[in-house]
Design brief:
Length: 313
């Protein structure tokens, strides 16, 4: 008599050891007594992400998690993983949306086929004032990509002893970490050493390659620029940055122009981590600006009260 209805989704995952991620979703309608409804609903919504209490809970030498990577691409295609490095304090829907756009642009270009992607969190010693503690950023970002069939969180960068340059992260973690991952191209036997790492970033970051510090030294070393550009970059255009002019003015960028993929974000909006922190500081809602798991985590852990998030940048 006093019943509520719940729709439960059952995820049937493949057997352990399979690289190719396949899943089956079954939706079951349940009619439950009211007292059980809340309990079942909470269980269904429960996350499978293992939350950590400190960085010490993470292994700084853990191997790259390749569980979401495809193991086969079409004939003639170059297998690619997309890597985004950043603060993610917190991750927003726009961060994830741009990565979806990146995958689409690379796949539709005819040259590449994206087999997976990673978000790498910057180290606390980077020194950015608005960084939430690492364990909170790890937990939030893990929740943000939990339901993605191709994106994973990688914690190697944020668990090292010191802050590392982006070029070193791309080279020492992702290029090295994918060297032994076998990929089948067309009907050929699987091969290792064929995965290409492409860095995903905004036009403003690429523009910073040309900046010079007050002491006359470049903001980015020429070696690091070479490492990033020679691997490949997928750049989302930003207002105020003319990428064509930027590339034309830089001898190094001109040399690697064929490795720079430009695109416009498919969705135009101003959702950013800064906006999320600002709204929280004002006591306003951030619902639908961050992934649902991230939203719940922020409220459950009262992250709006973090001293770092009181700073307006």
């Amino acid at each position: 008599n006093n019943c509520k209805h719940a729709l439960c989704t059952l995820n049937l995952e493949p057997e352990p050891g399979r690289h190719q991620r396949q899943s089956c979703h079954i939706v079951v309608a349940l009619s439950l007594p009211s007292r059980l409804y809340t309990l079942v609903r909470g269980s269904v919504m429960a996350s499978r992400v293992r939350q950590i209490a400190s960085v010490a809970d993470l292994d700084p030498q853990a191997p790259l998690n390749t569980s979401k990577l495809q193991t086969k691409v079409s004939a003639g295609k170059i297998p690619v993983i997309v890597v985004a490095c950043g603060s993610y304090s917190p991750a927003t829907i726009m961060h994830l949306r741009i990565l979806e756009d990146t995958r689409d642009v690379l796949n539709m270009g005819g040259k590449y086929e994206v087999i997976g992607g990673f978000i790498s969190l910057t180290h606390e010693k980077y020194g950015k004032a608005t960084l939430a503690p690492t364990h909170h950023r790890v937990n939030m970002t893990a929740l943000a990509v939990e339901d993605s069939d191709w994106l994973s969180l990688d914690t190697w960068e944020c668990t090292q002893d010191e802050w590392l340059q982006t070029a070193r992260v791309l080279k020492d973690r992702f290029t090295a970490g994918c060297q032994d991952f076998p990929v089948q191209i067309g009907d050929e036997p699987p091969k290792t050493g064929v995965v290409k790492v492409i860095f995903s970033c905004g036009a403003d970051l690429l523009e910073s390659f040309t900046r010079i510090r007050d002491d006359g030294s470049p903001l980015w070393s020429f070696e690091d620029q070479e490492t990033i550009l020679s691997n490949g970059v997928a750049v989302v255009r930003r207002v105020g940055v003319n990428l064509d002019e930027l590339i034309a003015r830089s001898e190094r960028m001109r040399r690697y122009k064929h490795q720079i993929v430009q695109f416009d974000a498919g969705t135009k909006n101003t959702v950013s981590s800064t906006l999320v922190r600002t709204l929280l500081a004002k006591g306003q809602s951030i619902k639908y600006l961050v992934p649902e798991g991230c939203y719940r985590y922020i409220h459950e852990h009262r992250l709006k009260d973090l001293p770092a998030w009181q700073i307006q940048d």
